[in-house]
Specification:
single chain; mainly beta; twelve-stranded antiparallel β-sheet; five-stranded mixed β-sheet
Length: about 325
C-alpha cells in the first residue's frame, strides 16, 4: 500500500485492543474492481494440530484345521483447533463507497478454539476353518465402540433437549457440559466368507467365493463438520452497514458469545453409529498356467445416522442402497 494519487494507506491494521496480527485477521474486499475484484488479507489465520496415540495388536493360534486370529485397535485423538480470536471483514461494493471511505457491509467475528478428545476401540476374533480340503470357511465378530467426543479445553460440544421432529417448539440447548448423545455399546459386526474349489484340474482350476459383513462407521467424524461451519459456541458474529472505515470502537468491538440470534448445530441426542452391510460373490477360472479370469458381484446397503425431516423422533435412520 502506498500514497499513489492521494491514497491514504493504513498505518496499522485496524484491530481493537488487545488484538494484533498474532491472533487476529483482517480482510478488505472490493469486488467491483475488474473480473476478480481486489482483496487484501493480513494477520493470523488458524492453526490445526493433530495428536494421535494408536495401540494395535493381534495374535494367531493354529489348532488343527482352525486358524484363529484375535486383535484390538485403540485410538486416542486430541486435536487442537486454534483459529484467529478476532476477524474483521470490510466490503466496498462500489467505487463511490471506496472513495468516500464508507463500507457497504462488514462482518465482525469473535472465535474460540478448543482441544477435543476422541476415543475409539475395536476388538475382533476370527476363525478360518478348512473342514475338507476343497472348502474354506472364515467367520468372525468385530466389536466397535466410538466414545462420545468431549472437550479437554475450550467450549464443549452442544447438546439439545426436547428433540422431536414432529414438534420443535420444545427444542432448546442443554446446559454447557451436557453430553450431546450417549455412547452405544451394541455395535457387534459379524463377518463370514466361503471359498470352494470347484475344479482342481492342473492349469484349469476354478473356485467359487462369497462373503458378507457388517461394518460400523464413526459418528464422531461429524464433529469436525460442525466446527468447520463456524457456529455457536465457537463463533460470534455481528454486522455493520454503511459505516465509515476504519470503524469506531463500538463497531469494531468483538461480539459477545451468546445464544441470542446465534446459529448453532448439535448432534441428534438419539444418535447411533451408522453401519454398512456388504456382500460379494465371485467366480474365478484359471486359463492355463499364467492367466485367469474372474467375475464378481458386490453389493452394499448403508444405514446412515441421519434422520430426515418429517419422520417421528423415534424413526429408524434413512437407508441408501449402493451397488
Amino acid at each position: 500500500m502506498d500514497g499513489f494519487l492521494g491514497a491514504v494507506p493504513l498505518s496499522s491494521l485496524p484491530f481493537p485492543s488487545p488484538y494484533t496480527t498474532k491472533d487476529a485477521n483482517f480482510y478488505l474486499n472490493m469486488p467491483f474492481l475488474g473480473l476478480a475484484g481486489l482483496a487484501l488479507q493480513a494477520g493470523y489465520g488458524q492453526e490445526l494440530i493433530q495428536r494421535q496415540f494408536n495401540i494395535i495388536d493381534s495374535f494367531y493360534v493354529q489348532r488343527g484345521s482352525h486358524s484363529l486370529k484375535f486383535g484390538g485397535d485403540f485410538r486416542r485423538l486430541s486435536p487442537i483447533y486454534a483459529p484467529q480470536q478476532y476477524d474483521q471483514e470490510t466490503n466496498f461494493f462500489s467505487l463511490s463507497s471506496a472513495q468516500s471511505g464508507t463500507s457497504d457491509f462488514a462482518f465482525i467475528r469473535a472465535k474460540k478454539g478448543a482441544t477435543l478428545l476422541f476415543k475409539n476401540l475395536g476388538l475382533y476374533a476370527q476363525d478360518t476353518w478348512r473342514p475338507v480340503p476343497r472348502l474354506t470357511l472364515t467367520f468372525g465378530l468385530r466389536w466397535d465402540i466410538d466414545f462420545v467426543p468431549s472437550s479437554i479445553e475450550g467450549p464443549t460440544l452442544l447438546a439439545v433437549t426436547g428433540y422431536n421432529l414432529r414438534d420443535l417448539s420444545q427444542l432448546a440447548l442443554a446446559p454447557q457440559g451436557t453430553s450431546p448423545y450417549s455412547t452405544t455399546y451394541g455395535n457387534v459386526a459379524p463377518r463370514v466368507g466361503v471359498a470352494y474349489e470347484l475344479r482342481k484340474s492342473p492349469s484349469w482350476e476354478s473356485a467359487l467365493r462369497g462373503g458378507f459383513g457388517v461394518f460400523y462407521n464413526m459418528a464422531s467424524s461429524e464433529v469436525g463438520n460442525i466446527m468447520e461451519r463456524g457456529l455457536y459456541p465457537f463463533l460470534a458474529t455481528s454486522f455493520a452497514f454503511g459505516v465509515p472505515f476504519p470503524y469506531d470502537s463500538a463497531t469494531a468491538a468483538p461480539p459477545p458469545f451468546t445464544t441470542k440470534n446465534a446459529a448453532a448445530a448439535a448432534p441428534n441426542p438419539n444418535l447411533e453409529l451408522p453401519y454398512t452391510l456388504e456382500w460379494n460373490v465371485a467366480l474365478e477360472q484359471a486359463l492355463g498356467r499364467q492367466q485367469s479370469i474372474s467375475v464378481t458381484y458386490t453389493g452394499r446397503l448403508e444405514e446412515s445416522c441421519c434422520k430426515p425431516l418429517g419422520l417421528q423422533s423415534d424413526a429408524k435412520p434413512c437407508l441408501r442402497v449402493l451397488d
